[in-house]
Amino acid sequence: PYVLVTPNETRRKQLQEIAKKELDDLERWKEEHRPGPITLAPQRLGGKESEAQARQNQQMTLMQSKYQQKHKREEYVKAKKAAEEAEILKKKAIQREKAERLEVKKRQQEMQRREMLLEDQNYKTNELLNRLDVHLPKSDSCQIANPGPESTAWTRSHAYKQALREEENRRLEEMKQEQRRKAELMEFKQKQEEEARTRAHQNEQRSYLQSLFSFYCTLRVNNAFLDRLQKKTQHNNSYQPG
After folding, report:
1. Which pTM value belongs to this model?
2. How confident is the model over 158-202, as pLDDT tens digits?
3. Measured between alpha carbons, how far is 67 from 223 in angstroms, rounded to an integer?
4. In angstroms, rounded to a whole number, what is the distance separating the alpha carbons of residues 108 and 179?
5. Cβ distance 142 to 217 under 8 Å?
6. Mapping DSSP to helix (H, G, I), strand (E, B) and coil, where does residue 209 land?
């Protein structure tokens, strides 16, 4: 459902008259506030340089801007490449450190496992030897003077224990030496990597200085060429008739 509202003709006429009056007032205000004619004092325009010199300066500025843009592009490419290489080196260093830590952890676990194995083996050996000692009779002066098979077995067990202790000490000393050698090797590798990074940084600085020196030489050559061209132009202009 909908309701149809008939338009009010009187209200519409009033609104149209108001809008027309406002437009007339706006046009009248524009006419009243229209700016008048501009009067300027006559003066001489233009610079002190001649057209040839202005064109020469413009050409020099254009060439310098081209060299500057080229140098900026080269610097941007070098900086981007250096940043990428630094990021790659950083990731490699992180991966290397992780691998080294994992290797050190594995070596420590292996050493702990070996130590536990040696301790268990020594414990079992000592337990066996103690059992053998329990079954052996106590030695007196006669047995010491005339050693029998029991004293010989005790001597053998004591020598075996001593040999086991010496072997264990030798293995522990070898593992300590191995860990010491690996630590020295890791320190040497870190020093080499630090020296390599220092040399790369120095080479980068050297290449940057060389590029700046070449740009400066090129700019000096161009300026000398433009000076000769300017002198030649001035010489030709001075000999023109009239």
Report:
1. 0.30
2. 777 777 778 878 888 888 888 888 888 888 888 888 888 888 888
3. 13
4. 9
5. no
6. helix
